[in-house]
Design brief:
about 200 residues, 2 domains, about 50% helix, elongated
Length: about 200
């Protein structure tokens, strides 16, 4: 299981408690999204956080966390909606400066992450992340997808009907990065599953 992204939460200079509420909410949403993706969380990125502070961003303006996959590492910078509107130049400058010091920075507005369907799908996949899948079940799903590249979630689940949680097993394979599905549309039995 991945560790949780972190963001130091402290009162903003304005003293507006809604700033802290927004960053806490965003941190929960980032955690939910990352639970469904094949990434490992490496914690806070002090260098990018210092660059953000240099450009005038406050800790309550963004969630900043280091991530890695099997092939690369990068820093995710998710700006609160307010920060995206008011501090876009500072956010872009932070991204550019990060890349100047060889840090790949993925900059994202909170609104892109906060889509209800996306978060609901991520929550379902994340909750299935620890479902145990045998090698036999894995191969049955992958073999089915080889013969039917447009197989549905229901089709893949039927291939391992003897599993304690066949849908959960397919979702766990999505979280592990073996399979993929479009997380922007509501998850249904007919949702298309493909090999990643």
């Amino acid at each position: 299981m991945t560790s949780q992204p972190t963001s130091p939460i402290r009162a903003s200079p304005s003293g507006d408690p809604s700033d802290n509420d927004d960053i806490r909410s965003l941190l929960r949403q980032v955690t939910t999204a990352l639970s469904a993706l094949p990434v490992e969380v490496d914690g806070d990125d002090d260098m990018v956080r210092n660059l953000a502070a240099y450009h005038g961003l406050r800790p309550s303006d963004a969630v900043i966390t280091k991530l890695r996959t099997n092939t690369r590492s990068f820093t995710l910078l998710v700006a609160t909606s307010n920060s995206w509107e008011l501090n876009k130049r500072a956010l872009l400058a932070t991204k550019q400066d990060g890349e100047r010091v060889r840090r790949k920075v993925l900059l994202m507005p909170a609104g892109r992450l906060r889509r209800t369907v996306f978060l609901t799908n991520c929550s379902l996949i994340g909750s299935s992340r620890n479902v145990q899948i045998t090698a036999t079940h894995r191969m049955a799903i992958l073999a089915h997808l080889q013969t039917d590249p447009l197989a549905s979630l229901e089709d893949c689940s039927r291939e391992i009907a003897g599993h304690d949680d066949p849908v959960g097993a397919v979702l766990a394979m999505i979280a592990e990065g073996f399979l993929r599905m479009d997380l922007r549309v509501p998850m249904r039995p007919e949702s298309v599953i493909s090999v990643a």
